[in-house]
Amino acid sequence: MEVRSNTTAEENSPVESAASRHRRSSSKKPLASPLPADTTSVSQRLQKELMALMMSGGDLGVSAFPDGENIFTWIGTIEGGKGTPYEGLSYKLSLHFPPNYPFKPPQVKFETTCFHPNVDQFGNICLDILQDKWSSAYDCRTMLLSIQSLLEEPNLESPLNNYAAELWNDKEDFKRMVHKQYLAGEAPAPAS
Predict the structure, then answer these.
(1) Is 126 a residue of the active site?
(2) Who's near 90: CB < 8 A, 6+ residues apart?
(3) What is the mean pLDDT of residues 40-53?
(4) Which member of 126, 150, 160, 167 is catalytic?
């Protein structure tokens, strides 16, 4: 039985063609990543979103950055819109991106106490794009702008805070409560 190598006559030739050398060198395998391939693509997507947020320069009163070295956990900031009960206030949010992001939404919570019809006492947010209306086309900036918009235009049909929903129509009392909670509030206790 004769054993033959997988090399071609061209490769054994002392004068190897440039095309042959290129084919062999370009067939090298990519460097292994310490993360699974799907997690690596999520990480790359999040890095692109971070760059886009940084390039926007915090326009429109939203910003977000990774919390330390973990690209899957971010801290966001939303400024209250002009002419709203939240004007002049700055809210901190936590964003936790799942390994299957952007196909599943991140978990987003207010860390700063926020008195709002669609935010509960623990900072959970009732917003359709963070649940059943999520699309992989959304990005971090879109989410933050949507939450900022929710501050101005709550969905009173599905409140998480019934008292805030009832008080919404009394603008002065509502604004007073927003500021009272904001100034007196501590960050909500982490969920156990």
Answers:
(1) yes
(2) 77, 78, 79, 80, 112
(3) 93
(4) 126
